[in-house]
Structures are given as C-alpha cells and as structure tokens.
Amino acid sequence: ILMVDEKGKNMKCLTFFLMLPETVKNRSKKSSKKGNSSSSSSSSKLPPVCYEIITLKTKKKKKMAADIFPRKKPANTNTTAVQQYHQQNLNNNNTIPAPNWQGLYPTIRERNAVMFNNDLMADVHFVVGPPGGTQRLPGHKYVLAVGSSVFHAMFYGELAEDKDEIRIPDVEPAAFLAMLKYIYCDEIDLAADTVLATLYAAKKYIVPHLARACVNFLETSLSAKNACVLLSQSCLFEEPDLTQRCWEVIDAQAELALKSEGFCDIDFQTLESILRRETLNAKEIVVFEAALNWAEVECQRQELTATIENKRKVLGKALYLIRIPTMALDDFANGAAQSGILTLNETNDIFLWYTAAKKPELQFVSKPRKGLVPQRCHRFQSCAYRSNQWRYRGRCDSIQFAVDKRVFIAGFGLYGSSCGSAEYSAKIELKRQGVILGQNLSKYFSDGSSNTFPVWFEYPVQIEPDTFYTASVILDGNELSYFGQEGMTEVQCGKVTVQFQCSSDSTNGTGVQGGQIPELIFYA
User: Fold this and answer.
1) How buried is 400 (Cβ within 10 angstroms: 0-12 exposed, 13-18 middle, 19+ buried)?
2) What's the CA gap between 250 and 227, in Å, rounded?
3) Which of 102, 104, 437, 518 is the most buried (most CB within 10 A)?
C-alpha cells in the first residue's frame, strides 16, 4: 500500500502478503509428515503462495504529471541535484548516478531532456567533426528517430545499419549538439558563430523548425558586414526569403558590404552574381577595388602567389562584369588604369571610350547600373514663413520616427532660406536609444523656394521595424527659413508606414505639428 499525503508526496510504503486459509491448511498437512524440528523450521520459512492486489478507486478525474506537479522551482533539498544534472548535460559522457533521478522531473519533456548528451542508456554514438577536431557524442535511437526522419531511416528504415558508432565529418560538434538539444529538450540555443553550421545540420537531417529558427536568427542579425557571406550560404541552403533579405541590404548598403571582410570569403558564383547586380548602389571604383581584394584572398585559398597575373586568372570572365567605362574619369585614371590588372590595349580602348567621338568596342559592360531610386516620406501638409521664425542659433531640430518594415535611411530633406538664395551648413544625426548610428556634416544650397533640399549620410543607415529612432539636425546659415505646418503622426509611403512623435532632443521648436526635417529619404 502506497500512502501519500494531499500534496502527492510519498509518505510510507507497506506491503501485506495475504495467505489464503485453504492453502495454509494443505501445506500444514504435507509438512506434518516430516520431523518436528523439520516441520517447525519449514513452517517458519514458508513463502506466500499467492497474494491479492487491491486497487483503491477514486471518483476524482485522473491528472497528468504536469497537472499534479506544476512547473516551479524545486525544493531546497533537490535544487543542488537538479543543477548538477543540468550541468552534466553540458559535458560529454556523464551518467546519472542517483537511483531515483526520474523523481526530480515532473514531466516527460524534462525527463527526456536529461538524456541529452548523456551516456545513460545510449545505444549509439556519433563521432562528429573533421579529423583532428572530432567529438564523441552519445545518442538514443528512439529519441533521434522521433525528432528526424533521416535518423528514423538510419536506425529503423529498410536499409538501416546496426552500427554502434557513426562518423559525421561534415558537421561541427557545436552545431550537432545544438540540433540534439532541440530534439531532446525542445529548446533552440543559437549563437552567431555557429548558426550557419547549425542550419546546415538542420537541413541535412531534415529538422525544419530548427532550420526556420536559424533563418530567423540570421535575418535579425543581418547587416552590411555579413550580407555577402549570408547571400552565399542562403543560395547553398536554398532559402529564398533569406536571399531576398541579403540582396536588400547589399543593394542599399553596397559600398559597406563590398568593403567588408566577409565579401572576400564568398565563392566565385556569388561574386559573379554581385558584379552583375543592376541595382547595386555603389560607385564603380568601389566595385573594382572590392573585386581585386577578393582576388587576392582567392589566390591565398588556391595557394597561389598574389601577383597581378594570378589575380586576373582567378577573376576570369568576372573581370568584364565590372563596369569600368562607367567610372568617373578621375577614378579610372588614378585607379583602374594604374592597377596593372588591365592589359595595355584595354586601358587604351577605355581612354578612347571616354574621349573619342567614335568609341571602340569593349568587352566590359558600358551601361551604368540603375542603382536604387530613393523614396521620400513628407510629413507636413503645408509650409510657411514668418519674419520671426524659423531661426537657427546652434539649437537642435529633432523628431522621432518608426517604420513597419526594414528600410535604409539615406538622408533628410530640409527646408531652406525664405529670404532669397543662401547656403546652409547642416550636421545631421540618426540615433537609436541615444546611440549614434549615422552622422554627417555637409552643406547645401537653398534657392529661396519652399522646396526641400536633400542632405545625405555617408552610407545609408539600416532601420529595423517597430522601433523609434531619432532624426536630428543642427543648421547654420541664414536665420530665416521656411518651416512645416499641419504635421501628420502617420504617413503611408509606398508599402512603408512611418509614425512620428516628438523628441526630447528638439530645442528649436520642431515637433510633430511643425518645424524642420520635413522629409525622410530612404531605400526600401
């Protein structure tokens, strides 16, 4: 009889053997034929012939373990043991020494998680990683087969092989462990330095939900620094959504992406696709220099000396995808023409292309890239000017905004002088939670009209959705200028919705209803 208290705790276990009277009587008759001493000894050690199990019935509805034991912090007496077992899961080949470890975990999910990276009851082992960097990891066929159709075919399919040890040289140990943790614990644990390897493992073993989580992780961490590498990997993994996201970043922040270290790590096919890109928003001299940097690293990968000849060799026909004839003449004369990568005939023909009326035929693409067309979000319905405003004395005009889709802010549209033509000096800033994401100091000329005049950042700034950013400008120039009126708190610009709110940084009067910074210039 198992006695429990109201909280379900085991209080006492009592065992009763119920002897049937007839059985005892018959045995006593048989034993009487033996001697008295023998009879006395055998009767005292007489084992029970049968026993009866009585089930106590209750009218209460049966509950699952999770209902009886709600999730909460374990008692002080068990906390140390639970933490010890969790710590053992982080290491390899640790078994559970406690005889009743199952009692520490109220749900099947938690008990199943104990088996993660645990030798206890393991019926298969994996040797994961390339030679010289392998790690031996335990597994349980049933759990793995439930989590992956590939493992199911491997262990229970028609062509299943009964191997105790399986070698997996093409997967990194950390990535394989991340996949096992998902299968065993239903937990997704991703890191920036292993997420690509984890995505590869999830794709190889057909774990789609983990693969989707990896892609989401990559999309949220996507930037100009890693966009080219992720483009290469997204094509390899056949993830079209991630590919499209990468192209959006590369197009809008092309110069940053081409100058990043990750650009030199891409494969040749990805290099060709970037050089062909019609909407690449970059100067052609930047594209040319990026291709030479890639060629130098590629020579090292192929164990070649990074000479001019070898650089041209590894570039191959991709060299002609660079639109050298569309460069500014100064960029060509001081850059590409003196790089040594072009032949003498190619250099002469390109110079003739710039200067001669009858242009020679070139192998290079001579049509300029289209680039991206910037969009303008205008937040005022009208503008005006008065004799006593809008004045600038080193004070800041500022406004906060948020978008519902990822965009790239290229600059601001600003009002100019209301008293004839004038030149202004503008310091523009873009901040998120006080952190400066982009800034620039430049000048613009105002012709005295009520038009807006663009002021650009050095590079477009990536803006994430559903987060407020602060746009600020400090102007220096003619004191009187136009200013906006009848401001809108929400503006629909194409497929992007922009919301505005007042900023505490504004010390010159600009707010939602009126003031400066009438336009946001962006790529979407």
Assistant:
1) buried
2) 6
3) 518
Judge contact between 104 and 74, C-beta under 8 A.
yes
Q: What 8-state DSSP symbol labels residue 389?
A: B
Identify the pLDDT of residue 179: 96
DSSP-derived pairing of the beta strands 165-168 and 124-128: parallel
Of 136, 83, 145, nearest in space to 114 by CA: 83
Confidence band, pLDDT 50/70/90 cuts, at residue 389: low
Can you tell me the distance from the alpha carbon of 53 to that of 506, in angstroms, rounded to the nearest whole number?
82
Of 434, 404, 436, 369, the residue nearest 522 (C-alpha) = 404
**Where residue 30 falls among pLDDT bands split at 50, 70, 90?**
very low
- Containing 445, the helix (H) or strand (E) segment is strand 435-446
Walk me through the domains of the chain, giving residue ranges and CATH numbers. 82-219 (3.30.710.10), 236-353 (1.25.40), 373-521 (2.60.120.820)
Of 420, 430, 511, nearest to 470 by C-alpha is 430
Amino acid 67: pLDDT: 42
What is the Cα–Cα distance from 203 to 148, expressed in whole angstroms?
11
- The amino acid at residue 326 is T
Give the integer Cα–Cα distance in Å for 471 and 379.
Answer: 13
The number of angstroms, rounded, from the C-alpha of 80 to the middle of its chain's C-alpha atoms is 34
From residue 415, alpha-carbon distances to 33, 327, 378, 473 in Å are: 122, 32, 12, 11
Enumerate the β-bridge partners of residue 4. Answer: 10
Residue pLDDT, tens place only, 87-127: 455 555 455 556 788 888 888 888 888 899 999 889 999 99
Q: Is the pLDDT of residue 53 over 70?
A: no
Of the chain, the percentage scoring pLDDT greater than 70 comes to 81
Q: What does DSSP say about strands 469-476 and 422-432: parallel, antiparallel, or unpaired?
A: antiparallel
Q: Which residue type does 426 have? A: A
Closest by CA to 277, choosing from 287, 286, 290, 263, is 287
Classify residue 482 as exposed, middle or buried by CB count within 10 Å of its CB (0-12, 13-18, 19+): buried
Q: How confident is the model at residue 61, as a pLDDT?
A: 42
User: What are the angstrom distances between the C-alpha of 150 and each of 107, 109, 144, 187?
Assistant: 27, 22, 9, 20
Q: How far is CA 177 from CA 132, 140, 147, 261, 396, in A?
A: 18, 14, 14, 28, 52
pTM as predicted: 0.74
Q: How far is CA 167 from CA 94, 108, 130, 190, in A?
A: 21, 30, 10, 23
Arithmetic mean of pLDDT, 1-20: 47
Q: State residue 227's pLDDT score.
A: 94
Q: At what angle do helices 284-301 and 308-315 cross, to 10 degrees?
A: 100
Q: What is the mean pLDDT of the chain?
A: 83
